[in-house]
Every structure is written in C-alpha cells, then in structure tokens.
Amino acid sequence: MNTHRTFMHRCYQLATQSENEGESAVGSIVVKDGVIIGEGTEKSRQQKDITRHAEVVAIMNAAQHTASLTGAILYTNVEPCLLCSYVIRHHRIAEVVFAKHSGELGGTNENFNLLTSGDFKSWDAPPVVTLYSEQ
C-alpha cells in the first residue's frame, strides 16, 4: 500500500537518526486518521532507561496529543518486542506495521505471542499485524 510506504519511509529516517545517535536503528511513528501524531527513536542508551524503545517513545508522544489511541496505527521498522507489545495492547493500537522480525523476543513470536494472541481477557482483540515489504 502506498500509504504504508510513506509512513515507513519516515520510520527509516528516524531509525537512521537513532543509529547516528549511537542507539539501535529503530524508528517508530503513530498515525491516527491519516496524520502522524507521535514519533519515536531509541533512547535506551542515552537515557539509561531500557523502557525507552522507539515504539514506546512514539506511543507516549502520541498520547500527549490525543485522548485515545484506539484505532491508531503504529509503524516501525523492526517488530515490536514483548515490552513494546504490552504498551501497544494497553493503548488499543488497531494495527502494527513493521518491516523486519526481531527474533525470539518479538511480540509475534509463537512462544510468547503477546502482540497477536486473543487469549488475554483483560485486552480487546489484538491489533492487525502487517509485515511491510517494499515490493
């Protein structure tokens, strides 16, 4: 989808910025109603705070601009980890679009499946997960 390309391009720009600052090359944005309402880059090393992943930073930034993130889309160049998946589910993000799986700690990993499981009674339905490809 062309819209995905535009938003993922912004994630790649943020990932480059993050890498240039000595962090992991991850950039994330939150989009609601077609508008970017939050952006984030990795800040874990700079702030000596392991919770400062790009996805969490983007979600917290977006939460400052809107009363609810229900129905929003999170774009990120790397699959959200378990920590980020919890935050995504808590804020009722409707869709997650990412370009690269992150391995054993990824939120869609079948061993943990925090991002995509419908088994959690405390949460609404899981977000739609879209694996982005340039093709």
TrEMBL record:
Identify the Pfam families for this entry: dCMP_cyt_deam_1
Which SUPFAM superfamilies does the record cross-reference, listed alphabetically?
Cytidine deaminase-like (SSF53927)
* GO MF annotations in UniProt: hydrolase activity; zinc ion binding
Q: Which PROSITE patterns match?
A: CYT_DCMP_DEAMINASES_1 (PS00903), CYT_DCMP_DEAMINASES_2 (PS51747)
Superkingdom per UniProt: Bacteria
Ranges of residues in domain CMP/dCMP-type deaminase: 2-109
Q: Which UniProt keywords apply?
A: Metal-binding, Zinc
What is the protein name for this chain?
Nucleoside deaminase
Instruction: Specify the species.
Output: Filimonas effusa
